């Protein structure tokens, strides 16, 4: 009896009171109430407790996310420009993973980072003009985030242990192997995709490695493998034979798709509790 009396007392305090007591209350809603509405009315939007909280908190969180995303885009553009300038001053390394001048554009890492920089620049233009992002730009953002993400993972899990992590983050590689990929993925996670990000849309993330891989293979078929360090197989995918090279090619494509799925998951988690009514 004492417990029920306490619950009744708390519910009485939490129950919203009409500012016009002389008016008759409206008829009760025939829809059954949720158990939490019956047991804990203090947690409902009309209760006294809810008014203590900030009702504009979701909007403020979204504003913080949007401003952070804009700052990240500015950083991405600045770092890609800086990395490109440093890259053109590089000399070929003994690993064969660094060339000189425009020869660096043969690397997937460089191409994916340049794509990320251009995409971030276009996004900034849209933000300045306060224009809604178009669907093609969304797909470019997804592809660049996943492409730089696979670069980040390959360096962390394969090239770093093989050649030494310190060598993988020297010169322009500091920007292209580490900083830009992290910022690019973080920016996409904070991005409000307006329903464009679906399981089907993540398939587009596989386009960059597929196109690059086909161009890589066609170049070898036309010009041959060549002799190191001027080999056309600069990644060494064929060192273990064509079959191993094909497996690596497929693995890169699938891992890139896996990164896009993770980006979709984290994007949804980041936006789940910051939308009104959620």
Q: How do you describe this structure in short?
A:
This protein has 278 residues and is mostly helical. The chain has helices at residues 2-14, 35-39, 48-52, 57-87, 108-128, 135-163, 165-168, 173-190, 207-223, 242-272.
Structure overview:
The chain has 278 residues and is an all-alpha fold. The chain starts with a helix and ends in a 6-residue tail after the last helix. Helix 6 crosses helix 10 (242-272) and helix 8 (173-190) packs across helix 10 (242-272). Helices cover 63% and strands 0% of the residues. The radius of gyration is 27 Å and the shape is globular. It is built from ten helices and no strands. It folds into two domains: 2-52, no CATH class; 57-272, no CATH class. It has helices at 2-14, 35-39, 48-52, 57-87, 108-128, 135-163, 165-168, 173-190, 207-223, 242-272.
* Portion in helices: 55-70%
How are helices and strands ordered from N to C?
HHHHHHHHHH
Summing up helix and strand content along with how strands pair, one would put the structural category as mainly alpha
Unreliable sequence segments: 13-23, 31-51, 273-278
What portion of residues belong to β-strands?
A: under 5%
Number of strands: 0
The coarse silhouette is globular
- Number of helical segments? 10
Overall average pLDDT:
79
How widely separated are the two ends? 36 Å
Largest sheet: none
Total tally of structural domains: 2
């Amino acid at each position: 009896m004492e417990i029920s009396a306490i619950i009744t007392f708390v519910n009485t305090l939490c129950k919203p009171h009409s500012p016009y007591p002389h008016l008759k209350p409206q008829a009760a809603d025939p829809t059954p109430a949720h158990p939490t509405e019956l047991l804990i009315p203090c947690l409902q939007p009309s209760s006294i407790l809810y008014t203590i909280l900030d009702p504009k908190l979701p909007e403020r969180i979204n504003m913080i996310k949007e401003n952070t995303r804009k700052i990240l885009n500015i950083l991405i553009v600045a770092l890609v420009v800086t990395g490109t300038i440093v890259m053109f001053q590089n000399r070929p390394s003994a690993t064969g993973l660094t060339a000189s001048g425009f020869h660096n554009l043969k690397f997937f890492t460089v191409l994916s980072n340049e794509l990320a920089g251009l995409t971030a620049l276009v996004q900034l233009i849209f933000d300045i003009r306060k224009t809604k992002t178009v669907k093609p730009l969304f797909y470019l953002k997804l592809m660049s985030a996943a492409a730089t993400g696979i670069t980040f993972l390959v360096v962390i899990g394969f090239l770093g242990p093989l050649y030494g992590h310190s060598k993988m983050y020297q010169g322009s590689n500091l920007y292209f192997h580490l900083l830009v990929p992290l910022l690019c993925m973080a920016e996409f996670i904070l991005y409000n995709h307006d329903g464009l990000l679906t399981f089907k849309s993540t398939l587009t993330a596989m386009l960059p490695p597929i196109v690059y891989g086909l161009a890589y293979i066609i170049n070898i078929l036309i010009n041959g493998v060549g002799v190191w360090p001027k080999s056309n197989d600069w990644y060494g995918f064929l060192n273990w034979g064509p079959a191993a090279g094909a497996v690596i090619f497929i693995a890169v494509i699938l891992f890139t798709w896996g990164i896009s799925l993770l980006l979709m998951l984290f994007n949804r988690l980041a936006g789940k509790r910051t939308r009104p009514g959620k």
